[in-house]
Amino acid sequence: MDVMDRRALNRATLARQLLLAREQVAALDAVHALAGLNAQSAKDPYVGLWARLAGFTTDDLADLLHSRQVVRACLMRYTQHLVTAEDYQVFRPVIAPVLVRAHHSAWRKRTEGVDLEQLVVQGTEALNGVTLTRPQLGKKLQEYWPDHEGTALGWTFQYLAPVVHPPPDGLWGRKGGATPFALAEDWLGVELGEPDPAALILIYLAAFGPAALRDIHAWSGLSRLGEVVDELRPRLVTFTDDAGTELFDLPDAPRPDPGTPAPVRLLPEFDNLMVGFRDRSRVITKAQQARVCVGAYIAATLLVDGFVRGMWKLELTDDTATLVIELLDDNGGSDVVLTSAEREAVEAEGLELLRFVAPELEHQVQLV
């Protein structure tokens, strides 16, 4: 098997993640190509697509949510994601065991004595043809289990039944409010099929390959996919990384020359580039990871030449938006030397980001 070093893996991943250039790709096609976008924070998918697509506007994604071509739902690693409607039909049946496990971990004690199969039946009946918020759904479920909290009942239904969160959920600039629920099959107008883990793995490899089995596990939250990958081997190509770990990929997927230039990019919190792998060394060192990935939190990052070189945050006042970029060297410290061209590119990209997220304010970029 051919060996792919860190830089080769980096460039292959950047190509899949639309980070070697701003692509002339429709937002819907991009969401599919990326295997979805983490959407714990409503703004992050918008920033993630802005970093990848030429001419992207917030309306491009909002229109997809309103037209039901993209949905927001609890999926991989039991976190909120934006995915295409077609990918949801693949992902949700396969991810179901992850969501059941999440319920058992978070809500099992608070739903003791509840017939969970009956809860799904009653919740489905309550949501049939309508949209309810979690508190509204919880209140309806309390009619059957009055001794249990509505919050626990509502969350349990979310984990155990296929639901999506329609607009205004997922829209840029939404001001709080309870999360709305709709039955996925009602919202999409299709019946969900049987689990097809092979289809999910192929979508993952198109977006993140070459990748190891443990990377697929980390991204999806699933385990025991080895037999499925083995069945797919005739359709895949294999490599190893510098440590000898076997990596899987699609034969015709892009694997650019390692010397391919990579532009400066500013990526949002929980970006795909960070959550798509167990071994993140293709984009970030272990020392940097200790600063960027703290517990379950993953900071917004700066890429220079395709690798993490900093973290960023926004500071807003009544009239000014300041992008503060904390530079990181390979050891997680601040001893970073940028060329004058790299510094100019970082500052220019920072100003473009500020124009996107806060067009009405004055803009400043600070490198610290």
Automatic annotation (TrEMBL):
The Gene Ontology terms for molecular function here are: DNA binding
Query: Can you tell which superkingdom this protein's organism belongs to?
Result: Bacteria
Q: Report the InterPro entries cross-referenced here.
A: AlkZ-like (IPR009351)
- Would the keyword DNA-binding turn up in this protein's UniProt record? yes
The answer, when asked if DNA-binding is one of the entry's keywords, is yes
Q: Which UniProt keywords apply?
A: DNA-binding
Q: Name one Pfam family in it.
A: AlkZ-like
Name of protein: Winged helix DNA-binding domain-containing protein
**From which source organism is this entry?**
Kribbella lupini
